[in-house]
Amino acid sequence: MAMRAINRRPRKKAKMIMKNVEIHKGYIPGAIGKIVELHGTYYAQHWGFGLFFEAKVATGLSDFLSRYDESHDGFWVAVDGQRVVGSITIDGIEAATKGAHLRWFILDPEYQGKGVGNQLMGEAMRFCEEKNFQRVHLSTFAGLNSARYLYEKWGFQLEEEKEGDTWGVRVREQEFEWASSF
């Protein structure tokens, strides 16, 4: 089974850019609250999202981690010292039927553009390759240009775009997909 080539940028380069940032695989104490805070703060300040969005992130992430199974799920947290500065997850529970779901990708604005987001995406996509996932999808919205750049760099393609209020605010919702090549 041939897979689309995964970007194999050396991890060392990203670590040199942000040498104090470590990527942890799996849950670490306090991660849920800190990741929810990153989402809530960023999206409130930059997009006007409120309580509905923050509660949705909190319940969704908590539910995911309550059923987390390393055989098909991935969870990575970027940490600088004791400070959680980013995260990404692969929810693989429906990988065989609907595809794996890339979720809760967030990076503190101070760390954007320094290689940390690319490092997180690399961990997630290498995991998908190791698990032989044939399809990975994600939901986002127009205007998150740095994230979109990374998604496309890692082989995701825009599949659908429409107006919606999934996040509690009306935005141009987007669905991206990565698929293995046969």
3D architecture notes:
The chain contains five helices and seven strands; from the N terminus they run H-E-H-H-E-E-E-H-E-H-E-E. A seven-stranded mixed β-sheet has the order 1-2-3-4-5-7-6, sandwiched between helices. The chain has a domain of 123 residues: 3-Layer(aba) Sandwich (Aminopeptidase), CATH 3.40.630.30. The chain has 182 residues and is of the alpha+beta class. The N terminus is likely disordered. Strand 3 and strand 4 form a beta hairpin. Helix 1 runs antiparallel to helix 4 and helix 2 packs antiparallel against helix 3.
What's the order of the H and E elements?
A: HEHHEEEHEHEE
The name of the CATH architecture of the domain at 11-133 is 3-Layer(aba) Sandwich
Pairing-aware structural class of the strands and helices?
alpha+beta
Mean pLDDT: 89
Q: Level of helix content? A: 25-40%
SS field, number of helical segments = 5
Shape, principal axes of CA atoms = globular
CATH superfamily of the domain at 11-133: Gcn5-related N-acetyltransferase (GNAT)
Q: What is the topology, as strand order, of the major beta sheet?
A: 1-2-3-4-5-7-6
Assembly type of the chains comes to single chain
The amount of beta strand, in percent, is 25-35%
CATH fold group of the domain at 11-133: Aminopeptidase
How many beta-strand runs?
A: 7
> If you compute it from the alpha carbons, what radius of gyration comes out, rounded to the nearest whole angstrom?
16 Å
